[in-house]
Design goal:
Elements: E1 13-18, H1 24-35, E2 41-46, H2 52-56, E3 67-71, E4 82-87, H3 90-102, H4 105-113, H5 116-123, H6 125-141, E5 143-144, E6 147-148, E7 152-156, H7 160-167, H8 169-173, H9 181-193, E8 198-204, H10 208-222, E9 231-239, H11 246-253, H12 259-268, H13 274-302, E10 309-313, H14 321-333
Parallel strand pairs: 1-7, 1-8, 2-4, 2-7, 8-9, 9-10
Antiparallel strand pairs: 3-4, 5-6
Helix pairs in contact: 1-14, 3-4, 3-6, 5-6, 6-9, 7-10, 11-13, 12-13
Protein backbone atom coordinates (compact mmCIF):
# COMPACT_ATOMS: atom_id res chain seq x y z
CA UNK A 1 0.00 0.00 0.00
CA UNK A 2 1.21 3.50 -0.77
CA UNK A 3 2.46 5.65 2.09
CA UNK A 4 0.70 8.64 0.54
CA UNK A 5 -1.61 10.53 2.91
CA UNK A 6 -5.28 10.69 2.11
CA UNK A 7 -6.53 13.52 -0.09
CA UNK A 8 -9.45 13.88 2.35
CA UNK A 9 -7.79 14.47 5.69
CA UNK A 10 -10.41 15.80 8.09
CA UNK A 11 -13.39 14.56 6.07
CA UNK A 12 -15.64 12.33 8.16
CA UNK A 13 -18.81 12.15 6.04
CA UNK A 14 -18.21 10.80 2.52
CA UNK A 15 -21.26 11.16 0.28
CA UNK A 16 -21.03 8.94 -2.82
CA UNK A 17 -23.17 9.69 -5.86
CA UNK A 18 -23.10 8.78 -9.55
CA UNK A 19 -25.27 8.12 -12.55
CA UNK A 20 -27.14 4.82 -12.51
CA UNK A 21 -25.07 1.99 -13.91
CA UNK A 22 -21.69 3.42 -12.93
CA UNK A 23 -21.26 1.14 -9.90
CA UNK A 24 -22.03 3.76 -7.26
CA UNK A 25 -23.00 1.30 -4.51
CA UNK A 26 -20.00 -0.93 -5.20
CA UNK A 27 -17.62 2.03 -4.99
CA UNK A 28 -19.28 3.29 -1.79
CA UNK A 29 -18.78 -0.15 -0.22
CA UNK A 30 -15.15 -0.29 -1.37
CA UNK A 31 -14.53 3.22 -0.01
CA UNK A 32 -15.88 2.13 3.38
CA UNK A 33 -13.45 -0.80 3.36
CA UNK A 34 -10.58 1.48 2.37
CA UNK A 35 -11.39 3.98 5.12
CA UNK A 36 -11.59 1.18 7.71
CA UNK A 37 -8.00 0.06 7.15
CA UNK A 38 -5.68 0.59 10.09
CA UNK A 39 -8.19 -0.50 12.70
CA UNK A 40 -10.79 2.22 12.10
CA UNK A 41 -14.58 1.96 12.46
CA UNK A 42 -16.66 3.02 9.49
CA UNK A 43 -20.42 3.18 9.00
CA UNK A 44 -21.89 2.64 5.52
CA UNK A 45 -25.42 3.99 5.07
CA UNK A 46 -27.85 3.21 2.26
CA UNK A 47 -30.74 5.64 1.68
CA UNK A 48 -32.53 4.38 -1.44
CA UNK A 49 -34.19 1.26 -0.04
CA UNK A 50 -32.70 -1.07 -2.66
CA UNK A 51 -30.66 -3.24 -0.26
CA UNK A 52 -27.74 -2.80 -2.63
CA UNK A 53 -25.20 -2.89 0.18
CA UNK A 54 -26.50 -6.25 1.40
CA UNK A 55 -26.14 -7.62 -2.12
CA UNK A 56 -22.58 -6.33 -2.47
CA UNK A 57 -21.51 -7.87 0.85
CA UNK A 58 -23.61 -11.01 0.24
CA UNK A 59 -25.39 -10.71 3.58
CA UNK A 60 -29.06 -10.73 4.67
CA UNK A 61 -31.12 -7.57 4.08
CA UNK A 62 -30.02 -4.75 6.32
CA UNK A 63 -32.36 -3.43 9.02
CA UNK A 64 -32.53 0.11 10.37
CA UNK A 65 -29.83 -0.91 12.78
CA UNK A 66 -26.07 -0.73 12.56
CA UNK A 67 -24.72 -4.17 11.75
CA UNK A 68 -21.14 -5.30 11.17
CA UNK A 69 -20.79 -6.50 7.57
CA UNK A 70 -17.04 -6.71 6.89
CA UNK A 71 -13.52 -6.44 8.24
CA UNK A 72 -11.09 -4.31 6.28
CA UNK A 73 -7.67 -5.67 5.30
CA UNK A 74 -5.03 -5.22 7.97
CA UNK A 75 -1.35 -4.35 7.70
CA UNK A 76 1.80 -5.83 9.18
CA UNK A 77 1.43 -3.60 12.23
CA UNK A 78 -2.33 -2.96 12.49
CA UNK A 79 -5.40 -5.16 12.26
CA UNK A 80 -8.14 -4.35 9.83
CA UNK A 81 -10.98 -2.18 11.03
CA UNK A 82 -14.70 -2.88 11.04
CA UNK A 83 -17.31 -1.81 8.51
CA UNK A 84 -20.84 -1.45 9.85
CA UNK A 85 -23.86 -0.81 7.65
CA UNK A 86 -27.52 0.09 7.87
CA UNK A 87 -30.39 0.76 5.50
CA UNK A 88 -31.80 4.17 6.41
CA UNK A 89 -35.57 4.17 6.18
CA UNK A 90 -37.54 7.46 6.39
CA UNK A 91 -40.28 5.86 8.49
CA UNK A 92 -37.85 4.51 11.07
CA UNK A 93 -35.87 7.75 10.96
CA UNK A 94 -39.03 9.71 11.76
CA UNK A 95 -39.80 7.44 14.70
CA UNK A 96 -36.26 7.95 15.96
CA UNK A 97 -36.60 11.70 15.46
CA UNK A 98 -39.90 11.81 17.42
CA UNK A 99 -38.35 9.77 20.22
CA UNK A 100 -35.21 11.92 20.42
CA UNK A 101 -36.84 15.34 20.28
CA UNK A 102 -40.39 14.79 21.50
CA UNK A 103 -40.29 11.53 23.50
CA UNK A 104 -43.08 10.30 21.20
CA UNK A 105 -41.91 6.91 19.97
CA UNK A 106 -45.18 5.18 20.89
CA UNK A 107 -47.25 7.92 19.31
CA UNK A 108 -45.02 7.72 16.23
CA UNK A 109 -45.65 3.99 15.97
CA UNK A 110 -49.38 4.65 16.02
CA UNK A 111 -48.99 7.26 13.27
CA UNK A 112 -47.10 4.71 11.20
CA UNK A 113 -49.93 2.20 11.51
CA UNK A 114 -52.36 4.87 10.34
CA UNK A 115 -50.23 5.64 7.31
CA UNK A 116 -49.59 9.22 8.39
CA UNK A 117 -45.82 8.90 7.97
CA UNK A 118 -46.11 7.76 4.35
CA UNK A 119 -48.59 10.53 3.67
CA UNK A 120 -46.33 13.19 5.20
CA UNK A 121 -43.19 12.12 3.35
CA UNK A 122 -45.09 11.83 0.07
CA UNK A 123 -46.54 15.34 0.13
CA UNK A 124 -43.33 16.77 1.62
CA UNK A 125 -40.36 14.96 0.01
CA UNK A 126 -38.04 17.51 1.58
CA UNK A 127 -38.94 16.06 4.97
CA UNK A 128 -37.96 12.59 3.75
CA UNK A 129 -34.54 13.84 2.65
CA UNK A 130 -33.98 15.68 5.93
CA UNK A 131 -34.72 12.49 7.85
CA UNK A 132 -32.34 10.42 5.73
CA UNK A 133 -29.47 12.90 5.67
CA UNK A 134 -30.13 13.54 9.35
CA UNK A 135 -29.29 9.91 10.14
CA UNK A 136 -25.91 10.26 8.42
CA UNK A 137 -25.25 13.58 10.16
CA UNK A 138 -26.16 12.11 13.55
CA UNK A 139 -23.82 9.15 13.03
CA UNK A 140 -21.04 11.50 11.95
CA UNK A 141 -21.42 13.62 15.10
CA UNK A 142 -22.08 10.79 17.57
CA UNK A 143 -19.56 10.44 20.40
CA UNK A 144 -18.79 8.14 23.25
CA UNK A 145 -16.98 10.27 25.75
CA UNK A 146 -14.39 12.36 23.94
CA UNK A 147 -14.17 10.13 20.86
CA UNK A 148 -16.37 9.77 17.83
CA UNK A 149 -18.12 6.40 17.60
CA UNK A 150 -17.19 6.18 13.91
CA UNK A 151 -13.98 7.40 12.33
CA UNK A 152 -15.87 7.93 9.08
CA UNK A 153 -19.37 7.60 7.64
CA UNK A 154 -19.99 6.72 3.98
CA UNK A 155 -23.40 7.47 2.48
CA UNK A 156 -24.51 5.61 -0.64
CA UNK A 157 -26.53 8.60 -1.83
CA UNK A 158 -29.12 9.08 -4.62
CA UNK A 159 -27.96 9.42 -8.23
CA UNK A 160 -26.20 12.54 -9.46
CA UNK A 161 -29.34 13.99 -11.04
CA UNK A 162 -30.96 14.26 -7.60
CA UNK A 163 -27.97 14.86 -5.35
CA UNK A 164 -28.24 18.65 -5.16
CA UNK A 165 -31.83 18.63 -4.01
CA UNK A 166 -31.16 15.73 -1.63
CA UNK A 167 -28.33 17.57 0.13
CA UNK A 168 -29.84 21.06 0.09
CA UNK A 169 -31.97 20.19 3.11
CA UNK A 170 -32.43 23.68 4.53
CA UNK A 171 -33.94 24.96 1.30
CA UNK A 172 -36.08 21.85 0.90
CA UNK A 173 -37.57 22.17 4.37
CA UNK A 174 -38.00 25.96 4.36
CA UNK A 175 -41.54 25.69 3.04
CA UNK A 176 -42.44 23.18 5.74
CA UNK A 177 -41.06 24.80 8.85
CA UNK A 178 -39.47 28.21 9.24
CA UNK A 179 -39.04 27.86 13.01
CA UNK A 180 -39.24 25.12 15.61
CA UNK A 181 -37.58 21.73 16.13
CA UNK A 182 -37.96 20.55 12.53
CA UNK A 183 -36.23 23.64 11.20
CA UNK A 184 -33.57 23.43 13.92
CA UNK A 185 -32.95 19.79 13.00
CA UNK A 186 -32.63 20.70 9.31
CA UNK A 187 -30.20 23.49 10.15
CA UNK A 188 -28.07 21.10 12.21
CA UNK A 189 -27.99 18.60 9.35
CA UNK A 190 -27.11 21.32 6.85
CA UNK A 191 -24.31 22.53 9.10
CA UNK A 192 -22.70 19.06 8.94
CA UNK A 193 -23.20 18.71 5.18
CA UNK A 194 -21.84 22.21 4.48
CA UNK A 195 -18.80 21.76 6.70
CA UNK A 196 -15.27 20.79 5.63
CA UNK A 197 -15.95 17.43 7.31
CA UNK A 198 -18.19 16.43 4.37
CA UNK A 199 -17.16 15.69 0.79
CA UNK A 200 -19.35 14.58 -2.12
CA UNK A 201 -17.60 12.03 -4.34
CA UNK A 202 -18.73 11.30 -7.89
CA UNK A 203 -18.60 7.85 -9.49
CA UNK A 204 -18.48 7.76 -13.27
CA UNK A 205 -17.34 5.72 -16.23
CA UNK A 206 -15.59 7.13 -19.29
CA UNK A 207 -18.74 7.65 -21.35
CA UNK A 208 -20.28 10.94 -22.43
CA UNK A 209 -23.52 10.95 -20.39
CA UNK A 210 -22.06 9.89 -17.00
CA UNK A 211 -19.17 12.31 -17.48
CA UNK A 212 -21.55 15.17 -18.29
CA UNK A 213 -23.69 14.39 -15.24
CA UNK A 214 -20.55 14.38 -13.09
CA UNK A 215 -19.48 17.78 -14.38
CA UNK A 216 -23.00 19.15 -13.93
CA UNK A 217 -23.17 17.74 -10.40
CA UNK A 218 -19.88 19.32 -9.36
CA UNK A 219 -21.02 22.67 -10.74
CA UNK A 220 -24.36 22.35 -8.93
CA UNK A 221 -22.67 21.77 -5.57
CA UNK A 222 -20.81 25.05 -5.89
CA UNK A 223 -24.12 26.92 -5.96
CA UNK A 224 -25.80 25.27 -2.98
CA UNK A 225 -26.18 26.95 0.39
CA UNK A 226 -24.22 30.03 1.34
CA UNK A 227 -20.81 28.92 0.15
CA UNK A 228 -21.45 25.72 -1.81
CA UNK A 229 -20.81 22.14 -0.78
CA UNK A 230 -17.38 20.50 -0.95
CA UNK A 231 -16.95 18.40 -4.08
CA UNK A 232 -14.83 15.34 -3.41
CA UNK A 233 -13.03 13.03 -5.78
CA UNK A 234 -14.00 11.73 -9.19
CA UNK A 235 -13.91 7.95 -9.06
CA UNK A 236 -13.54 6.56 -12.58
CA UNK A 237 -14.93 3.06 -12.38
CA UNK A 238 -14.46 0.02 -14.64
CA UNK A 239 -11.18 1.17 -16.18
CA UNK A 240 -9.80 -1.29 -18.74
CA UNK A 241 -6.03 -1.83 -18.84
CA UNK A 242 -4.34 -0.55 -21.99
CA UNK A 243 -3.25 -3.34 -24.33
CA UNK A 244 -1.92 -1.25 -27.22
CA UNK A 245 1.05 1.10 -27.41
CA UNK A 246 0.35 4.72 -28.45
CA UNK A 247 1.55 4.03 -32.02
CA UNK A 248 -0.57 0.87 -32.26
CA UNK A 249 -3.55 2.77 -30.88
CA UNK A 250 -3.29 5.51 -33.51
CA UNK A 251 -2.90 2.98 -36.31
CA UNK A 252 -5.84 0.87 -35.17
CA UNK A 253 -8.11 3.89 -34.55
CA UNK A 254 -7.50 5.07 -38.13
CA UNK A 255 -8.61 1.69 -39.47
CA UNK A 256 -5.16 0.99 -40.93
CA UNK A 257 -4.46 -2.40 -39.35
CA UNK A 258 -2.32 -4.47 -41.75
CA UNK A 259 -4.47 -7.57 -42.19
CA UNK A 260 -1.82 -9.32 -44.34
CA UNK A 261 0.78 -9.06 -41.59
CA UNK A 262 -1.76 -10.03 -38.97
CA UNK A 263 -2.79 -13.11 -40.97
CA UNK A 264 0.86 -14.17 -41.27
CA UNK A 265 1.37 -13.83 -37.52
CA UNK A 266 -1.77 -15.87 -36.83
CA UNK A 267 -0.69 -18.55 -39.29
CA UNK A 268 2.75 -18.69 -37.67
CA UNK A 269 1.01 -19.24 -34.34
CA UNK A 270 -0.64 -22.33 -35.81
CA UNK A 271 -4.16 -20.96 -36.13
CA UNK A 272 -6.35 -22.17 -38.95
CA UNK A 273 -8.29 -19.88 -41.30
CA UNK A 274 -5.88 -17.07 -40.44
CA UNK A 275 -7.20 -14.77 -43.16
CA UNK A 276 -10.76 -14.74 -41.77
CA UNK A 277 -9.48 -14.42 -38.22
CA UNK A 278 -7.24 -11.51 -39.23
CA UNK A 279 -10.19 -9.63 -40.74
CA UNK A 280 -12.30 -10.14 -37.62
CA UNK A 281 -9.43 -9.27 -35.29
CA UNK A 282 -8.60 -6.10 -37.25
CA UNK A 283 -12.20 -4.93 -36.87
CA UNK A 284 -12.06 -5.63 -33.13
CA UNK A 285 -8.79 -3.73 -32.79
CA UNK A 286 -10.20 -0.73 -34.63
CA UNK A 287 -13.32 -0.67 -32.45
CA UNK A 288 -11.24 -1.04 -29.27
CA UNK A 289 -8.84 1.73 -30.32
CA UNK A 290 -11.67 4.14 -31.12
CA UNK A 291 -13.32 3.38 -27.78
CA UNK A 292 -10.06 4.07 -25.94
CA UNK A 293 -9.56 7.29 -27.91
CA UNK A 294 -13.07 8.41 -26.93
CA UNK A 295 -12.40 7.54 -23.30
CA UNK A 296 -9.26 9.65 -23.33
CA UNK A 297 -11.33 12.61 -24.50
CA UNK A 298 -13.77 12.05 -21.63
CA UNK A 299 -10.86 11.77 -19.19
CA UNK A 300 -9.62 15.18 -20.34
CA UNK A 301 -13.09 16.63 -19.67
CA UNK A 302 -13.01 15.23 -16.13
CA UNK A 303 -9.74 17.05 -15.49
CA UNK A 304 -11.53 20.39 -15.94
CA UNK A 305 -12.94 20.88 -12.40
CA UNK A 306 -9.54 20.14 -10.84
CA UNK A 307 -10.83 17.46 -8.43
CA UNK A 308 -8.65 14.45 -7.58
CA UNK A 309 -9.37 11.52 -9.88
CA UNK A 310 -9.03 7.83 -9.09
CA UNK A 311 -8.94 4.93 -11.56
CA UNK A 312 -10.77 1.84 -10.36
CA UNK A 313 -10.21 -1.51 -12.09
CA UNK A 314 -12.73 -3.36 -14.21
CA UNK A 315 -13.70 -6.52 -12.31
CA UNK A 316 -14.53 -8.97 -15.09
CA UNK A 317 -15.54 -11.98 -13.03
CA UNK A 318 -18.31 -10.31 -10.99
CA UNK A 319 -18.24 -8.25 -7.82
CA UNK A 320 -17.66 -10.23 -4.65
CA UNK A 321 -15.64 -9.51 -1.50
CA UNK A 322 -12.39 -10.17 -3.36
CA UNK A 323 -13.41 -7.63 -6.00
CA UNK A 324 -14.35 -5.09 -3.31
CA UNK A 325 -10.96 -5.54 -1.66
CA UNK A 326 -9.27 -4.89 -5.02
CA UNK A 327 -11.19 -1.66 -5.53
CA UNK A 328 -10.55 -0.64 -1.92
CA UNK A 329 -6.81 -1.20 -2.41
CA UNK A 330 -6.88 0.96 -5.54
CA UNK A 331 -8.60 3.75 -3.60
CA UNK A 332 -6.04 3.56 -0.78
CA UNK A 333 -3.05 3.41 -3.10
CA UNK A 334 -4.21 6.51 -4.97
CA UNK A 335 -4.83 8.54 -1.82
CA UNK A 336 -8.63 8.45 -1.66
CA UNK A 337 -8.60 6.90 1.82
Amino acid sequence: MSARDTDWEGVRLHVVTGKGGTGKTTVAAALALALASGGKRVLLIEVEGRQGIAQVFDCPPLPYQERKVAVAPGTATQPGGDVFALAADPEQALLEYLAMFYNLRHAGTALTKLGVVDFATTIAPGLRDVLLTGKAAEATRRREGSKHVYDAVVMDAPPTGRIGRFLNVTAEVSGLARVGPTRNHADTVQKVISSPETAVHFVTVLEEMPVQETLDGIAELAGLGDGGLQAGGIMINMVHPLVLSPDQLRTAASGSVDEEELALELKAAGLQDSRRLATALAAELTEHARTVTGQRAQRRRLAGPGQPRYDLPMITDGIDLAGLYRIAAALRDQGAA
